[in-house]
Amino acid sequence: MQAHPLIRMLDRGSTIFLVLLGAFAIAIPVLNLLVPATSSLHVSTYLVALLGKYICYGLLALSIDLIWGYVGILSLGHGAFFALGGYAMGMYLMRQIGTRGVYADPILPDFMVFLNWKELPFFWYGFQNFGYAMFMVLFVPGLLAFVFGWFAFRSRVTGVYLSIITQALTYALLLGFFRNNFGFGGNNGLTDFKDILGFNVQADGTRNALLVISCLMLAICFLICRAIVTSKFGKVLVAIRDAEARTRFMGYRVESYKLFVFTVSACMAGVAGALYVPQVGIINPSEFAPGNSIEAVIWVAVGGRGTLIGAVLGAFVVNYTKTFFTTGLLAPYWLFVLGGLFIGTTLFLPRGIVGTWTHWRAGVKEKSEARRSAEAEDGAIPTTGSPSTQPGAAE
Amino acid sequence: MPGVVINMRGLFDRIAVLILFAVLIVVGASGAATSALAGPYEEALPGFVADSFSDTATAIDQAAASGSALAAPLLQALKDQRLQFSAAEKKVLIKAPDGKFIDAATGQPFAGTVPADLSNVRLNNRLRNVLDAALGSLTLMAADPNKRYDAAQSVFKSRDAATLPALEKALAAEQNARVKAAMMQAKAAIAIISADAPAADKIAAIAVVRDRGDQDAMALLQTIPANAPPDVLAAVTEAKANIERNLALWATVQNLWYGLSLGSVLLLAAIGLAITFGVMGVINMAHGEMVMLGAYTTFVVQEVIRTRYPGLFDYSLTIALPLAFIVSGTVGIAIERSVIRFLYGRPLETLLATWGISLVLQQAVRAAFGPTNKEVGNPSWMSGAFDFGGILITYNRLWIIVFTGIVFVALLGMLRFTRLGLEMRAVTQNRSMAAAVGIRTARIDALTFGLGSGIAGIAGVALSQIDNVSPNLGQGYIIDSFMVVVFGGVGNLWGTLVGALTLGIANKFLEPFAGAVLAKIAILVFIILFIQKRPRGMFALKGRAIEA
């Protein structure tokens, strides 16, 4: 007897998460737009943009959790896919500026006029079309992940080596995008956006709409991830994570499984980047910095890897801490805190927040059940060894 | 090409002015003793007072022939229209650029009252030619061979036919082979551009210039017009091809040298990592910060020396080396004992934890020393450069290559021949067996990590000489270092050596075609592809143990 796939997919935690996310997506715009600014319940536009940013980070963390938590691929270059999605969106927004740029050129973005370019580079063609741009948001990170993964997984680059070359990948892109003649605005990146689909990017309504869309995309991606990890396919992924060689000997094509999940994850990171750009108003090469990608990994580690919800939660917690520390007098201490988080999490909280919580819950449940069964059949040995919800050392 | 000729003349003038100042300084130092005697130089001076062109011409030749150190500044002043005379008082004065007067007879500042009837010694075109020839011959006849060599070089570049008589005279007297060759080349250059030289002379001259074989020779040969006699043109074509070959050869040598230099820097940065990552299997993302600590140790040592013992400055690096080893090594041991020992067998977690450590260390250094670059000086034996054939070799790069070689050999020897090295290899190969025969593995772990960190520290001392000492110093090397270790093959110092040199040299050979940034990207992409072929690097260890 199998339960309906949708029901099996949505355990209680996931349902609570989705309901909370939905409530969040409704409450924030209402509190921002309908509650008067004088009220203590009013949410400022600044906060809306900030929360929108967190949601995008949450989506990025989710995409990392899918491959790190369930397949054991630690990508230290996921920021590259995030930034590529962001650049695709940025190029669309750039083309929407039209004649309102400083140089009022109807076709060329300002930086190209500034560099004395005469015509649009071929890779900018079509980005005035929203549909095409959205396609590229998925296609470019997906293609890069596919090509990179195809090379890497086929030749069985695993563990630390994979982490290091993903880092080299994002570093190479960082160097490239810093160049002025690369065609993406060099050091300054793309900025000064005006419209998205005809709506003003700066307007409150647009900001709230972007927040709601971000929540929606997070929910959709969460459901996709749940679907992947709860299916039979997902069981194979966990098998690969825990014993890759054994899984291969059982006849599974490990490379194909990894490649598929890696590509899906990169597309999700691209979507996160695309939603991030209109909300922060800029995309520049610093998004490719290896440090950014590593920071995103720590969000997942803090929240709890292999839990999906934990990744989103971790992104929220760490970024809220970051906002708290980087504004005001505490700013010089932020890197100490972040460094401490990296060290502390790996040493003292290897399961992360959610992982520790579920583990503790499982332990409590087991104990009470053991007690009950002990009371029932006086002296019987309780069953021990609940299935671990948590990965061990992924290598 | 008149523009080029004018520029060459300008260069010549500037060199002449430099020589003039040098002579002035010498004269000022030697004082009045040299100028007290009345010699041919003093006898020449009245010629300038006569205000007749023919007398001035005689006076110029006399002054130039006198061999006096005062002649060059005098003639230079004349050329610059700063030589003034008083017909009433029979005095010749040099008006210095700052408006003060110098007595031409003594070379000392003029003490008396400036005569009222001062006027410039006048020149016409014929006199200017005489003057140029005299000036050229003066420096060509200078006592210092380096000065003569420079003069010949500037004649080569100016190709001024007016200097030919002086050049021939100097050539006849020249003993120094190097200067003589330069003078021959200068003479050949004049012959090549002269319109009326016979074809045979030109061909001989072209052969001389060809043997010079550098960019200047090439530029000179470009000036030969296309309507020259066919045998001359044939000689030019042959000479050009020859020079091009020569230039290409030196360009290759230069790329190799730069590549070796970059490779040694990469090796220095990576060699500590080859121990912690390669031998211990610990991903130490804080490795770059160990390098940074070494660089800051150098800075602190130099600050102390600068304020307390300025005389020791040349030894600052020698003092900093052991200190940097101790500082970084101690921090490394502390990290190993406090964090890493809990994470053995979980490499991805060590990666995250050490990244956290690197952030903390960076911020700590920023808090202690400020976020800006720190000034670290080169000791005298590390500054400067010398010419080696067609390339310029700086001493600091040379010393870093030597130093890298020493570190590499010392480390290799330490792992091979000392007890600690033996125990390190034992622990990394088979931990439980090592423990069983009585090796204290925990202690060895700490010492190995300390050794890797300490070597990073002394790398920092060397890198402080060629890079900015800032809290971000380590970040710039960490990815490159990992690339080197991964490319070379983990657990193998020779692999690290070959990896670093290969990457360094490949980078420098790609740069002329692709530019620095694209070359770097190409290298990264190459390594990513290379890892596909050999996932364990160039010199991979074989066996089951490393598959874990």
Describe this structure in words.
Chain A: Keywords: Cell membrane, Membrane, Transmembrane, Transmembrane helix. Chain A: This is Urea ABC transporter permease subunit UrtC. Chain A: Residues 366-375 have a biased composition (Basic and acidic residues). The complex is a heterodimer of chains A (395) and B (548). Chain A has 395 residues and is an all-alpha fold. Chain A is 67% helix and 2% strand. Chain A has 15 helices and 4 strands. In chain A, helix 3 (45-71) packs across helix 13. Chain B has helices at residues 2-30, 40-44, 46-49, 53-66, 71-79, 125-140, 145-158, 164-173, 177-193, 199-212, 215-222, 230-279, 287-307, 316-338, 347-369, 395-417, 419-429, 431-436, 441-463, 475-488, 493-514, 516-533, and strands spanning 83-86, 91-95, 101-103, 119-120, 385-388, 391-394. Chain B has a 4-stranded antiparallel β-sheet with strand order 3-2-1-4. In chain B, strands 5-6 form a two-stranded antiparallel ribbon. In chain B, a hairpin with a 4-residue loop joins strand 1 (83-86) and strand 2. The longest helix of chain B has 50 residues, at 230-279. The interface between A and B is large, with 48 and 44 residues.
CATH topology of chain A: ABC transporter involved in vitamin B12 uptake, BtuC
Strand order of the largest sheet of chain A: 1-4
Biggest interface, chains and residue tallies: A-B, 48 and 44 residues
Unreliable parts of chain B: 1-6, 27-36, 543-548
**What fraction strand of chain B?**
under 5%
Structural class designation of chain A: mainly alpha
Radius of gyration of chain A, taken over Cα atoms and rounded to an integer in Å: 23 Å
General form of chain A: globular
**Helical content class of chain A:** 55-70%
The averaged pLDDT of chain A comes out at: 87
- CATH architectural grouping of the largest domain in chain B: Orthogonal Bundle
End-to-end separation of chain A in angstroms reads 35 Å
Named at the architecture level, the CATH assignment of chain A is Orthogonal Bundle
Main beta sheet of chain A: 2 strands, antiparallel
Number of domains of chain A: 1
CATH class of the largest domain in chain B: Mainly Alpha
What integer value in Å does the Rg of chain B equal?
33 Å
Main β sheet profile of chain B: 4 strands, antiparallel
Please tally the β strands of chain B and state the result: 6
**What coarse outline of chain B follows from CA principal-axis ratios?**
elongated
